[in-house]
Amino acid sequence: MFEIGLGHYLFVSALVFCTGIAVMATKRNAVGILIGAELVLNAANLNFVACGRYRVGGLDGQVAAAFVIVLAAAEAAIALAIFLNFYNALATIDVDRGDTLRG
Amino acid sequence: MASVLQTCLLLGVFVPLASFAFLALAGTKLGGSRRQPPSEPDPGHEHDHPTGPARGEPAAGYVATAAIAFSLVMALICLVIWLKHPESHDAFTQAARDAAVVWTVIGNVAIQFGVKLDALTVIMFLMVSLCATCIHVFSIGYMKGDPRFARFFTYMSLFCFSMLGLVISSNLVFLFIFWELVGVCSYFLIGFWFEKKSASDAAIKAFVVNRVGDFGFMIGLALCFIYLGDMSLDGAAAIFEAAAHAAGKAHGPLSAAAAAVAPESVSRASALFTTTLWGVPVATWLGICLFCGAIGKSAQFPLHVWLPDAMEGPTPVSALIHAATMVAAGVYLVGRVFLLLTPGAQFFIAVIGCITLTMAALIAIVQLDIKRVLAYSTLSQLGYMIFAMGIGAWIAALFHLLIHAFFKALLFLGSGQVIIGCHHEQDMRRMGGLWSKMPNTAFTFLIAVLAISGAGIPWTKLGLGGFYSKDEILAVAHYRHFGWEATPGDHEPHARTPAELSVVPVGFEPGVAQHGLAPGEQGHVAPAAAPAGSHEEAAHHEPAYAAAYPEVTRLPFILFLLPVLIAYVTPFYMGRCFVLTFLSPPRDRHVHEHAHESRIMYGPLLVLAAMTAVSGWMLFRGLVAEAVPQGGAPTLVPAIDGSTLHSAHHALPLWVGFSWMVGLLAAYLLYRNGFGVAERVRRLPALSAAYAVLWNKFYFDHVYDFLLVGGTKVVAVICRLFDNWIVDGMVNGSALATERISRFSGVVLDNMGVDGAVNLVGKTGWGLGGLLRSVHTGIVRNYILLAVIAISGLVIYILSAGNLIWTLIWVALAALALLVPRARLRGPQAYGR
């Protein structure tokens, strides 16, 4: 009935992106924020892949997406390490409590 | 021959200088330590501590004595040459004048170094070197055991050099240089025993008082420099004479030197007579200022106060100062600048001399210290000389200076002998009866006393020393009062020949000493008992000065009377001194028993006694008279030859002929038995006040102490106030101003301005930081929101094709939306638990 094109991907991507932003902007739980960040990264992946498929051609978009996935994995690892330390220090992972460097 | 004369004189001057240099460098290293220590210690030596021979003793004394003896030999050679060539004296003088070398040029005035060579130089040189030689020999004995023996003779050599240099100077500048050298030597020697406070004070006093006189002298030199433009004695005199003629102050033919003066010099120098200061012509001021130097050096009123205090020096120094050098320099100076005197200046000089001779003689009556009696007698005799210069008795003044040098040196050396013999006792109250203990000294002392008293037989030619010179001074004074205008002018005023005014020099043969006494045709120094028949003839030859010198006035009677009266006082105080020391019964047994005579020291006494005895009628007067600064052409003031004043010489013995007998007899009667009679006389009510005045020396020291020292102190207080208030005020004010300015600069400019600017930068940063601080909430969500706002703003900016306004509106709204709920967002809830 209708053909799924680039616009749809982009729309979904934007939706995911905004969801991720919203999650990051609203969650206090550090893990939640990490999940939001993953959403944002995956929205970007979606864009890369979609644009690679419809516009650029070749494997460039997918390669970039693979980078981002790797990056996200590393980022998640680092983030979780930070959270553990955060918890060790403050006995909580409520990021609002980690305002020691507040201006 | 002229060059030989000059060489001899210069050698005679510079050998003592070489001796001075040698002794100054090596005096204390000279041997003499081989001498045995004195067998019996001298108990009276309080100045020196005889712990064996001092370094340089006695070789240093021998060196200095040899040097001055060499000068004496040179002087004798000069005298012989001079007397052997009576026809070429003018040539000698001229040759010496031509031989002068230019030392330096100041402005347009060339200062020449040369020898003033005339009969006066020759005879003065002889007198100075002879007296100095005797005093040197005496000093070797007197200074025995002094710890600074070598230094004493070092100074003595310098002193002799200075005085001899002064005598031969042909230039006022060099005269002044040697003059100051004499002054500084007197300072060294008066303060030789400077451990004594009184000695160092006396030295300072002598020096400072002389500075006062020298200040006047320097002004006189400056006037010479400005108006006359020639500092040589002859040149200045010639210009002065020419200017006086040009100004109509002097009449008659010009001398050759004066006629040769350039017209512009004459016109410049004429200002001396046309310019007046306080109603007195500058020419008179010139003479008075030059005379001021003599006031200081020759210790005339009112600067006489240093001379008695100078007795603090060793006795040979006193002898040297009083006889040959220091005080003689003043009279010699007046003699040399005689042609620069105006009648006014001359009158001033006569008044000063008269005051001095009167005052000093009166003070001498009451002195108890043997040396102080002699000091005041010197003052009085110097007063006579200066007075003689003032009344125009040029020859008599210098004649008296020469004679006085010998008998005063004799008196001082005799007193030195007495002082040493009595173990440094100077107080006549503790002496007495010394004739038997020291007969040689007493005898020579007596000769000197007779000489200073003017002892001689009136109306004959037999007399000693002062009999000739003082009588001649008084004769001129007599003439200047009684005969000045009354003398009939038989002669034309300008028709006088040099033979009338000066005296033909006498030969050197000892047998014709009478020639010196009676020089010229029928001149007599001593008042001559002229036969009645020749009286008219004598009056006929009386020179008519008054007509030739209308500006020179008759001498006031008081200026004649005072010297005559003092001629009675002089033998009295000298006789008192002699009687108290040698004749009256001993008053102090200890002093009398230990009194003794030193052998080396009375050799010079005998020489000087011989010179005193013969000086009156040897060649001195003839030589002085030859040098009289007149040369036939009349100048402003006359140099009156006393030996030609016959009427005065006839009248004078009535005035003073027996004064010496009266004075000496009175002294003998009064002091024959010591002070007893004198004490009773002194207690007379009428005399006690006079005694107090005399004892306090007319209160001069008190007045000077009050006026000058006190005045100086007042000035010092004013200066201190000035210093404290004005000078310190300026310093403090500037400090205060600096402090205020720095406070303004520190507080206002620095703290408020510079620091303000710096702080403003800081505060701006602080404020901005504070503003931006609020962004850093520490809440991750806020950061994300900010990022979203920023990105969305960027997107809007791009999408609106660069419309900044929409972008800002969006960002502002978003920021508001973020910041308004901030507090709520920072709530304490802990979701993550």
Please provide a written account of the structure:
- The complex is a heterodimer of chains A (103) and B (833).
- Chain A has one domain: Helix Hairpins (Orthogonal Bundle).
- Chain A has three helices and no strands.
- Chain A has helices spanning 6-26, 30-56, 60-90.
- The mean pLDDT of chain A is 88.
- Chain B is an all-alpha fold and 833 residues long.
- Classes of the chains: A mainly alpha (103), B mainly alpha (833).
- Chains A and B meet through helix 1 of A and helix 33 of B.
What keyword list fits this structure?
heterodimer; A: mainly alpha; Helix Hairpins; B: 833 residues; mainly alpha; two-stranded antiparallel sheet; 35 helices; 4 strands
What does this entry show, briefly?
The complex is a heterodimer of chains A (103) and B (833). By secondary structure, chain A is mainly α. Helix content of chain A is 77%, strand content 0%.
Q: What structural class should be given to the helix and strand makeup of chain B? A: mainly alpha
Structural class of chain A: mainly alpha
Let me know the number of strands of chain B: 4
Strand order of the largest sheet of chain B: 1-2
Question: What's the total count of β strands of chain A?
Answer: 0
Shape of chain B: elongated
Sequence stretches where pLDDT stays below 50 over 5 or more residues of chain A = none
- The total domain count of chain A is 1
Question: Which strand-content bin applies to the residues of chain B?
Answer: under 5%
Strand/helix succession of chain A:
HHH
CATH class of chain A: Mainly Alpha
On the 0 to 100 scale, the average pLDDT of chain A is 88
Approximately how much helix is present in the residues of chain B? Answer: 55-70%
Number of helices of chain A: 3
- The geometry of chain A reads as elongated
By CATH, the topology of chain A is Helix Hairpins
